[in-house]
Amino acid sequence: MTNRSRPVFSQKFADWLKFQTFGDAELEKLATAAQEWASAFKRGDKPRWLSIIGTSGAGKTYVCKQLWKYAREKTNWQRFGYDAHIIFWPDFIQELRAGASYELRNELKRWPVLFLDDIGAERDPSGYAAEELNTLLGCRVGKWTLITSNKDLPALQAVDGRIASRLIRDENICVSVNTKDFAERN
Questions:
Q1: Contact 17, 31 (CB under 8 A)
Q2: pLDDT in tens, 129-148
Q3: Other C-beta atoms within 10 Å of 75: how many?
Q4: What pLDDT does residue 112 have?
Q5: Helices 89-97 and 128-139, axial angle in degrees (round to 10)
Q6: Which CATH superfamily is domain 11-184 in?
Q7: Where in the chain are the domains?
Q8: Which candidate, 181, 179, 172, places its Cα nearest to that of 40?
């Protein structure tokens, strides 16, 4: 996370999120970052992103799905003509490569809230996916966005420095979570 003042872990928020932290400081850090994003959304603050990066099975996707559902309930997206849904980045890139989903690609730039799941997980020897992601993220500045990735910031930096930079700019929240896979917890 960036160095501004952060809220402290709230078990009440973790319970609302239906997210068990098991007393794990890494999972508490994740819940706290989610709380900060949800509180900013609820207050109507300037839009920001929440990027959750780290180990597989940490709960990144689960937490972002809960936040996305919350944002969807609080915003009448149908009123704006959006048929918003979660974008699993590797599948979406595969669709674009096949010549499909270009209209959706343009819609993603305007959606009031976007959830990009698992960026960086796609196979991308040509750099096409990185360029598409960079373009999309550039258009998402000033819009509510949720992002997950198993890659850490240095790995994302190696893919494209612009992508890593955008995750941590301005009021965006970027949290790295390194903990046991959910399947291995007791």
A1: yes
A2: 999 999 999 999 999 999 99
A3: 16
A4: 86
A5: 110
A6: P-loop containing nucleotide triphosphate hydrolases (3.40.50.300)
A7: 11-184
A8: 172
